[in-house]
Amino acid sequence: MNRLIKIATLAVVSVFFTACGSSSSTTTATSQGDYGTNERMITNKDYKINSGDEIEKISDDPTIEVVTDLETGITTAKLISGEAAIIKH
Question: How does 2-41 read in b/e, with b if 16+ C-beta sit within 10 Å?
Answer without folding.
Answer: eeeeeeebeeebeebbeeeeeeeebeeeeeeeeeeebbbb
